[in-house]
Design a protein that fits this description.
This protein is mainly α. It has helices at about 20-40, 55-75, 80-85, 100-115, 120-130, 130-145, 175-195, 200-215, 235-260, 265-285, and strands at about 10-15, 15-20, 160, 170. The protein has one domain (about 20-285). The longest helix is centred in the N-terminal third of the chain and has 23 residues, at about 55-75. It is globular, with a radius of gyration of 20 Å. It comes from Kineobactrum salinum.
């Protein structure tokens, strides 16, 4: 059994304000997404230009926070929300959902693309590549904060989390999710994005890939105590939410390749869509 590294969840304090590592992980994820967006916007198959990356990050952050909180309230805290609707606004009490954040980001990207006359599919493809490392950093924040730990186990790398009232040796499932949903998914998307592909295919691969990897990781993660297991007595709420995500991802990939069967079709559509958007902007400025 491994010893849990006793790291203070509070990174530092500014008077009465405590800054947690989890919050810093969110900021680091946004910073990485901004850096990657700046690098990728120079490519001809990316419709977003350098001067638009800052706004893209702002819209993404808004979608993550609002969607993540509302998603958690609906997917995991329905009874609590019904008893105390104002709990939704008390974000400092914790509670964020990836699946809710995903919906929030999709809505935000649609808003962003429409307001700037950019192709929605091309913007979503870029957002898909920018997301996994933020998820990885978020899981590290969960690990440091002793949240979302794993199920009891006797594997040699099991850990006893000091905050666990039962003091059981558990899977460090946050690190599994860091490796699978974060690092591995990013490497897969990075490899895929370097090849000719139709628009929407990268976003589809993200949905299907994340859904599959999260489904696997959930087998090692302790389900929420107030929810437990669902279908067949072994599926978690997170796994059920991943099923439509996998189906959507596969649909998007099949639809994208049938819609643009020619290799490199994504570049033609994305560039033409971006050029059209810039032309409309120039006319508006004129």
């Amino acid at each position: 059994m491994l010893r849990y590294p006793d790291i203070d969840p509070v990174a530092f304090s500014l008077g009465p304000v405590q800054v947690h590592w989890y919050g810093l992980a969110y900021l680091a994820g946004l910073a990485f997404a901004w850096w990657l967006g700046v690098r990728r916007c120079a490519r001809p198959d990316v419709p977003v230009r350098r001067e638009q990356v800052d706004d893209l990050i702002f819209y993404s952050a808004l979608g993550v926070v609002l969607g993540g909180r509302m998603g958690y309230a609906l997917f995991y805290g329905g009874e609590r929300l019904a008893e105390d609707p104002l709990w939704l606004l008390r974000v400092w009490q914790g509670g964020m959902s990836f699946h809710g954040g995903l919906i929030g980001v999709i809505v935000a990207m649609y808003w962003f693309s429409r307001s700037r006359n950019l192709p929605f599919g091309g913007v979503l493809d870029l957002a898909a590549l920018m997301t996994p490392m933020g998820l990885a950093l978020g899981r590290l924040g969960n690990f440091i904060g002793q949240e979302l730990w794993g199920r009891p186990t006797d594997v040699p790398w099991a850990m006893v989390f000091p905050a666990d009232p039962l003091q059981l040796a558990r899977h460090p499932s946050q690190l599994y999710q860091f490796a699978l949903e974060g690092v591995l998914l990013f490497l897969i998307l990075l490899w895929f994005s370097a090849r000719p592909r139709p628009t929407w295919a990268l976003a589809g691969l993200f949905c299907a890939g994340y859904g599959c990897l999260r489904f696997i990781a959930e087998f090692f993660r302790e389900p929420d105590a107030h929810i437990g297991f669902h279908a067949f007595g072994w599926l978690t709420r997170g796994q059920l939410l991943c099923l439509p995500m996998i189906a959507l991802g596969l649909f998007l990939m099949v639809w994208a390749y049938r819609r643009q069967p020619a290799a490199g079709g994504c570049q033609n559509e994305t560039v033409s869509g971006s050029a059209a958007g810039h032309t409309r902007q120039r006319r508006a400025q004129g």
